[in-house]
Amino acid sequence: MKNFKKQCRQLIVKCQDILDLKHYKVTIAFSEDEDYYANAFYEEIPDHEATIVINKRKNAEAKDLKDTIMHEMIHIYLYDYTIYVENVVRTIRDVYDINFDFKTMFKKCYEKEEILVEKLTNVLKDKL
Ligand SMILES: [Zn+2]
């Protein structure tokens, strides 16, 4: 666990290079929440700022940490698309409002994104 934050920083910088995200300011935070390996939060465009909250215990293995950071950086990479999809779903809800199952559609969008992010992580993680 020594130099854990430094390790995270190095992996993030490498991911920024691989994904062409050098214009992002990525802040690292830590959490004890056992429900997830990590989470990414983004600020509004055009600020290009994001925070990755990492569970130290779940990412104690170097292999897991690499996977986790690549995964979260791909979420950041897809940020524009994610926001667009969220806005499309909200617009459908607000304009049509006919028994529109907003929650299910949102959930489905997130599930699809997770599958895509996992696939991309598997392709790109060996570059780290
Ligand atoms: Zn994810």
Number of separate structural domains: 1
- Order of strands, main sheet, comes to 1-3-2
N to C succession of SSEs = HEEEHHH
Which residue ranges are poorly predicted, with pLDDT under 50 across at least 5 consecutive positions? Answer: none
Give the averaged pLDDT, no decimals: 89
CATH architecture: 2-Layer Sandwich
Q: Find the structural class using helix and strand composition.
A: alpha+beta
Helix tally? 4
Gap from first CA to last CA: 19 Å
Question: What can be said about the biggest beta sheet?
Answer: 3 strands, mixed
Percent in strands: 5-15%
What's the overall geometry? Answer: elongated
Count of extended strands: 3
The CATH class name reads Alpha Beta
